[in-house]
Amino acid sequence: EYAVWWPERSSQPAEPKRLWILVPGGMSDGDSVAGYFHELLQSGVIDKSSEDWCLFHNAGTGGAEWRKQTYAGLSDPAFLLDYLKRLGAYSHDGPTKQDCLYREIIVLGFSVGGMLTLSTADKIFNGAQPTQAHIQKATLLGREHLKRWASFYKDGRCIAKDGSQLNIDNQASSNCTLEVPCRLRFVSVHSPDHLRNTFEAMTKWSWFARLDIPLALHFWAVNLRNRLIFKCPEGRLLPFPPTWSYIRHITEVAWAQNQVLKKQAVGESACQVKVPFEHLDGDFSLQVQAPLPPGEVLRIQNPEDPVVNKSTLDPHCLQKCDVWWFREGGHVMCFGASPKLARRLRKWVEHPPLVS
Questions:
Q1: Cβ atoms of 79 and 135 closer than 8 Å
Q2: DSSP, res 94
Q3: CATH code at 3-194+285-350
Q4: Which strand (E) or helix (H) includes residue 130?
Q5: Rounded to an integer, what distance in angstroms lies between the CA atom of residue 246 and that of residue 266?
Q6: What is the β-pairing status of strands 52-57 and 18-23?
Q7: What is the DSSP letter of 189?
Q8: What is the DSSP letter of 327?
Q9: Are 169 and 162 in contact (CB under 8 A)?
Q10: pLDDT tens per residue across all 356 residues of the chain
């Protein structure tokens, strides 16, 4: 399951035309993202008086739990695509549909959330085949947005602007038809390209500077809460040693257990078959098939990022997307450190560059 958080607001925009979907970095339950999201919301990038925003938490995070599966790659766009479909903003046949409430949706991801954002953009703009993923029915945490649009519905039908009635189901994702299609745009902030390379680079630092230690502890705390650790018989309950090796170990056993659950679901017997993390690299790295359209996809990187070392970035991925390089803000705290960046991004939103 994944989770979507909507803010509590004293007043709502009358007719919001733009929705921002904010994607946290890494294995976050929301408690560790308040700082950089607060900076973003105060920077003026989002016009909170006329635009909606929400937080998208990938599988197993943000209060969601693992139920019928135990594994999902951090760059796997299946769950984010599922949510965009529920909003009516994406279908297998193309990036937009006519039944989205918003005229524009911008997905903005930080750190690993940025890698997921770019993977989703690549799937939408470059994917020839629809995503084939076994996704369980999602739980959308924070139901305020369901109440907000209730006035559009009457007796199980949606009243369109021309007065005609459209049959809809009882899913929260069904929305009234707009006269224009929904435009999808994507922004990645300080994202890695290859998770294993990023963490392996950290292991070469001195012990007092090894950021994989606090990240491993946070990884453990999140998976303790979402009960992933208890669903993997071969997993170590305690994070020892609390380093990249623990993250690697839990990921490998989670994948192995997920294969067992898949076979059991169809009535087959199964035993765990472990594979090294290297075999899973594709689920934890960015793979861009073709250039992403300027004006629709943007990447922001810090050449002096203390977490994502520039040497670990993939030159081929950087060449396939518009990239802005800003030195301020360390890792993901850039909008508070650089008002210039915030103004430039808002200008990009309102006046996207022309595509020749």
A1: yes
A2: B
A3: 3.40.50.1820
A4: none
A5: 31
A6: parallel
A7: E
A8: -
A9: no
A10: 899 999 987 777 778 899 999 999 876 776 667 789 999 999 999 999 999 999 999 999 998 889 889 999 999 999 999 999 999 999 866 544 447 999 999 999 999 999 999 999 999 999 854 444 433 333 344 333 333 323 222 333 333 333 333 332 333 333 333 344 799 999 999 999 999 999 999 999 998 889 999 999 999 999 999 999 999 999 999 999 999 999 999 999 999 999 999 999 999 988 878 899 999 999 999 999 999 999 999 999 999 999 999 999 999 999 999 999 999 999 999 999 999 999 999 999 999 877 65
Residues for the chain: how many in total? 356
Distances (CA, A) of 102 to 98, 177, 281: 10, 10, 35
Is the alpha carbon torsion for 13, 350, 28, 326 positive or negative?
Answer: negative
The span from the CA of 54 to the CA of 153, in Å, is 22
For the chain, domain boundaries: 3-194+285-350, 196-281
Strand 104-110 to strand 18-23: parallel, antiparallel, or no bridges (unpaired)?
parallel
Helix, coil or strand: residue 34: helix
Give CA 199 to chain center in angstroms: 20
Please state, in angstroms and rounded to a whole number, the distance separating the CA atoms of residues 311 and 50.
40
In this prediction the pTM is 0.84
Helices (H), 110-211: 112-126, 144-148, 195-202
Query: CA 94, CA 272: separation in Å to the nearest integer?
Result: 38
Contacts of 10 (CB under 8 A, 6+ apart): none
